[in-house]
Amino acid sequence: MSLLIGMDEAGYGPNLGPLVVTVTVWEVPGSPRAFDLWAAMADVARQTHSAEPLTLQIADSKQVYSPGKGLAALEKSVLSALWLLGHSPTMLSELASALNAESGIRNSEFGTMNKQNHSAFPLPPWLVDRDLSLPTELDASLIGDIATKWLECCRRAGVTLREIRSEIVQPQRFNALVRDCDNKALALSRISLDLLRSVWNPDDAQPTLVICDKHGGRNRYDDLLAEVLDDRMLFAVGESRERSVYRVGSTEVRFQMKAEANFPVALASLVCKYVRELSMDVFNRFWAEHVPGLKPTAGYPVDAVRFRADIAEAQQRLGITDDVLWRER
To answer: Is the pLDDT of residue 244 over 50?
Structure first.
């Protein structure tokens, strides 16, 4: 058996709300480079939309979700995948716990990024003593049926979903990391590789393929990988605009453009988007309680400026600092 690991992020560009990075880990038969997870999951998942209620759309989250489409398609895939791992979250806090993540709803963070004292970053006020019921749009009775079908598909193919783990970085911590790195793209890469290292043992003899989306136009990742490899031997197979490939022990690590074409990355993309959208829902509800008639925001730069101006008086009244609210880069 071998491992296929996929990683992606959501929320890198906005000024408001969290950055979410997710990794999914799959055990598959044979060589991880030769195994076609799309073909193995064909009975339950497609890259395009299907009207069949027990069929999932697993693809880049930009194809699956838009405000007009709503969250139901994301919920089908994410909550069904968590069911495979024995998790049935009915609240956002439970979802965060299932992902072993720092959602802001729990006062803890997974990972050892730069040896930071995570307790130095308290909960933002919109996540204190607040939660959100799940699912928000999907008929909950579908999840068990979909997941049962998915589990049978996995059994026939000899595939096991081993783990889904997320790192959810709220603005205050994100700002501290960017200041420490003095580079936004470098901060993203370090957050991502720290998360990867939490689910991947480079000394494991099990053949492993790790696929990540490229970060900020970077072509070289050897120096960043070295930071989490503790002096293990690392070989650069090739570095280019399209793909940068490295080997360490029995593992091949790829950073490539359009990585969501790979099933483990596509599922990670959906988890990231789902968690971020839920987080923004809680964020917008909080501010709407303090600013009547406030138009909600997705947090992206142009509208974020409008939203920041609309809540300025309430922000000052509540004593919420810019560092807690606003991602500087």
So the answer is: yes
* Residue recorded with tokens 């359009």: 258
- Reading the block at residue 264, the tokens are 């483990």
CA-to-CA distance for 198 and 21, rounded, in angstroms? Answer: 13
Torsion sign across C-alpha atoms 51, 53, 56, 59: positive
Q: What DSSP letter does each residue of 223-241 carry, written as one string?
A: HHHHHHHTT---EEEEE-S
From the list 84, 70, 89, 102, the residue with the least C-alpha distance to 27 is 84
CB atoms < 10 A from the CB of 323, how many?
15
pLDDT band, very low/low/confident/very high, at 275 (cuts 50, 70, 90): very high
Q: Which residue has the tokens 């500087």?
A: 328
* Contact call for residues 128 and 136 (beta carbons, < 8 A): no
CA distance 87 to 105: 18
Parallel, antiparallel, or unpaired for β 2-10 and 208-213?
Answer: parallel
| Contact partners, residue 128, CB within 8 Å, separation at least 6 | none
- Residues 5 and 229: their CA atoms lie apart, in Å, by 17
How far is C-alpha 256 from the chain's CA centre? 17
Beta-sheet pairing, 19-28 with 2-10: antiparallel
Q: What is the mean pLDDT of residues 84-88?
A: 96
% of the chain surpassing 90 pLDDT: 86
d(CA 68, CA 57): 16
Tokens linked to 37: 């997870």
pTM of the predicted model as reported, rounded to 2 decimal places = 0.93
Question: What does residue 284 show for φ and ψ, rounded to 5 degrees?
Answer: -65, -35
Q: Is residue 329 very low, low, confident or very high in pLDDT (cuts 50, 70, 90)?
A: confident
Report the alpha-carbon distance of residue 308 to residue 315 in Å, rounded.
9
